[in-house]
Amino acid sequence: MVRLFFISIFICWEDGNGFNNAESGGQIVRRTRCNFVLIFSFFFLLSGCASFLTRPAPPSFDQPEPCREFFNRLDELIKGVDVRDASSESIPGSPYLRTNRFLAALKKDLKDDERKEAWIRMMQELALKSREKELHNLPDQAISSLDFKDGKKLDRESLYVQVKSCSSMLLNHDRSRLDFDAALSPIVPDEYSCLLRIMGLYPFVALPVALVTESSREKIRKRFETDLKDLPIEGKLKAFIPEKKIFFPEEAVREIIEASMRNPLAVPMPDGIQVEKLVWSFAPILIQDVAASYDRLGEVVWKEGQVEVNPEKPSVYYYLSHAFFKGKPILQINYVIWYSERAGESPPWIEKGRLDGLTIRISLDDQGKVFMVDVENNCGCYHFFAPQEEKVEKVLSRPLRFDPFVAQRLPAIPSGERLGIRINSGWHQAQRLISVGHLSDSIPYALVPYDVLEALLHEDGQTASIFNSKGIVKGSERVERFILFPMGVPSIGSMRQRGHHATELIGKEHFDNPCLFDQNFLFR
After folding, report:
1. What CA–CA distance (Å, rounded) separates 443 from 441?
2. Which of 148, 155, 311, 450 has its CA 20 to 30 A from that of 287?
3. How do strand 430-436 and strand 94-99 relate by DSSP bridges?
4. CA nearest 221: which of 7, 459, 428, 23?
């Protein structure tokens, strides 16, 4: 089988086609057939299950007993009532640290003690943020049930004070060990289940799914090639604009980015005021085809125990993330919009259901200039790239997988204008990225921190995350999960939390892969 696989590679190997989306039909068919040959010949190797992810045993630190017991008790309680914040990943043996894919990838670049210290501090801060949300989301009765040997009762505020105190105490204790840095294992599991792929006979099912995927890509490609004025409209186009008309010139943005990179890891980490300036400056204009109530983006709320979207208060949720651009850390601004459902005539029936959304990610280089915009639906599907043409030399071809889907090139956006995203009705897919200037008829939207979704206020005054401990939006399940489970994504089609977006069905890929751009593009 291995020999057949390498013969197939020899026959089908092709160089990347460069930065050119207008491939001929024959080229696409030939390359697709070769991919299918490789998929079929690779069989079990392609399944992505060649090795099961196993965590190394946690380091055996002789930690202070009271703090170790405190975190153990707290974690048991959080697990028991299922309020764990899934936006970050725990690190075995270090309950005061958490990680994500970017921080895990940074470990290979820790060349001196100063960088190691900064890296550990970032993981500690991430853990504290997640702990704070978890404490907010603990039910009152769970808080009251938590007592200690001295019989002392703690409320949420005093619990968080204790979390911070024990976090510092354990870190100070553990860092005295010479092997502390090396023993840390910041591993983030992927979003794919080998068991589901084995049960679903993934190597066989991958072939028809690949055919459907290629057909879907071709339809999307044609839609992006259609003249803007010829795109179908089911209802009425409405423009949603940021309620604060804040623009910062390129020089001011560059200064913010450069100042925020003055740390040992050179990771852009703007402060609160700088974040606000950047978020409002790059906030996009959403040009939505509104045919029914499900096309009106809105505020996410709890209503009678269910996650709902209130269209009377248009809102866009934002968060910052990091990635690598030519090997260096860069800043990304993510804008997330939500709808009450995916419905109408456009989407396939298996994709319809409660709640829907779209994530627009704007990536800035070390000068604060936009070099990439990529978009996905909040289920992780229909992910596409729009790179700046001057930055990209070519799109890199990926054997055994589909090439990165570049739907269009990033439009030039003159000073005083904003990025605009044209979105269709019902399916809520991006149809075009354009530059938009002044609009006389528009609807303002609020910008809200994404953290709000992870500790959202209930009608009774309690808070709860709209996501479960697996990173799935509660109540957003689709019929898809019973049909496409062989592709290995649990609850496929459901809306997902940041850090949990699997974006491909053939092979494995994640929206938050920090090396996504460098792996898929050759930059000038």
Report:
1. 7
2. 450
3. unpaired
4. 23
The 10 Å CB-count burial string (b at 16+, else e) for 248-273 is: beeeebbebbeebbeebbebbbbeee
Single-letter amino acid, residue 199: M
- pLDDT tier, 151 (very low <50, low <70, confident <90, very high otherwise): low
What is the residue whose two structure tokens read 């057949």?
A: 4
pLDDT in tens, 238-267: 999 999 888 888 999 999 999 999 999 999
In angstroms, the CA 30 to CA 32 distance is: 5
Bridge partners, residue 422, by sequence = 287, 432
Comparing CA positions, the residue from 56, 49, 379 lying closest to residue 190 is: 49
Q: Indicate the residue type of 141.
A: Q
**Residue 507 vs residues 202, 303, 447, 504, 521: alpha-carbon distances, Å:** 10, 38, 35, 7, 18
Q: What distance in Å separates the CA atoms of residue 48 and residue 205, rounded to the nearest whole number?
A: 14
Question: Which percentage of the chain shows pLDDT scores above 90?
Answer: 75
CB burial class (10 A; 0-12, 13-18, 19+) of residue 151? exposed
Give dist(CA 375, CA 317) in Å, integer.
Answer: 15
**506: helix, coil or strand?**
coil
Cβ(354)–Cβ(495) below 8 Å: no
Per the confidence metrics, is the pTM higher than 0.70? yes
Give, rounded to a whole angstrom, the gap between the first and last alpha carbons of the chain.
39
Q: Are 388 and 371 in contact (CB under 8 A)?
A: yes
Whole-angstrom distance, CA of residue 63 vs CA of residue 97:
14
Helix axes 25-42, 202-225, angle to 10 degrees: 160
Q: How far is 228 from 431, CA to CA, in rounded Å?
A: 9
Q: What token pair was written down for 509? A: 């890929």
**What is the rounded distance in angstroms from the CA atom of residue 77 to the CA atom of residue 57?**
23
CA dihedral defined by 306, 312, 313, 317, rounded to 10 degrees? 50
Q: What is the pLDDT of residue 63?
A: 66
Cβ-proximal residues to 316 (8 Å cutoff; 6+ apart), any chain: 240, 242, 283, 286, 297, 335, 336, 337, 445, 446, 447, 448
Quickly count: other Cβ atoms within 10 Å of residue 486's Cβ: 21
DSSP state of 368: S
On whether the CB atoms of residues 444 and 312 are closer than 8 A, the answer is no
C-beta separation of 226 from 77 below 8 A: no
How far is Cα 84 from Cα 76, in angstroms, rounded to an integer? 10
Give the pLDDT band of residue 437 (cuts 50, 70, 90).
confident
Scan for tokens 């005061």, then name that residue. Answer: 96
Could you tell me the sign of the dihedral formed by the alpha carbons of 271, 273, 275, 277, in that order? negative
